[in-house]
Design goal:
It comes from Kocuria sediminis. It holds the Pfam family Usp. The structure is a single chain. With 148 residues, the protein is of the alpha/beta class. The chain starts with 6 loop residues before the first strand and ends with a strand. The protein has one domain: HUPs (Rossmann fold, 3-Layer(aba) Sandwich). The longest helix is centred in the middle third of the chain and has 17 residues. The chain is built from 4 helices and 6 strands, in the order E-H-E-H-E-H-E-H-E-E. Strands 3-2-1-4-5-6 form a 6-stranded mixed beta sheet, with helices on both faces.
Amino acid sequence: MEQGTAAVVVGVDGSEQSVEALRWAARIAPALGASLRVVAAWDYPPEYAGYVPLGSDNFDEITRKRVDTAIQQAFGEDVPEGLTTTVEFGHPSKVLVRESEDAVMLVVGRRGHGGFRGLLLGSVSAACVSHASCPVLVIHEDGTAATS
């Protein structure tokens, strides 16, 4: 596999687990001959349904800033060569599963900004494990990894 023809996709939401997922993905990508593609998704919060006119919010901008901050926290000035970022509108699990279709691996945090703290897996990571088209690496809160 040539560098750049395949990608390790990493889901980022700005949480500590997603920053750690970035670090893991950056270590794994070279071994797989792959580039690193950082993917973030945003959706309208349920309480906004019907109340916010489309295009009148700044969720896309907030998400892009979270991605930039997470990349800075993960790598400082040593950003991996060839790293690309994508920010999409849509439910995070659906976006990440779609992005997994041409990936060699998907890396996600166990739980991000949402969800209930006691869950073994967050809803996004569980959906990725169940539906991704490639192997999935789930990073736990303590920085350990589990594969599926």
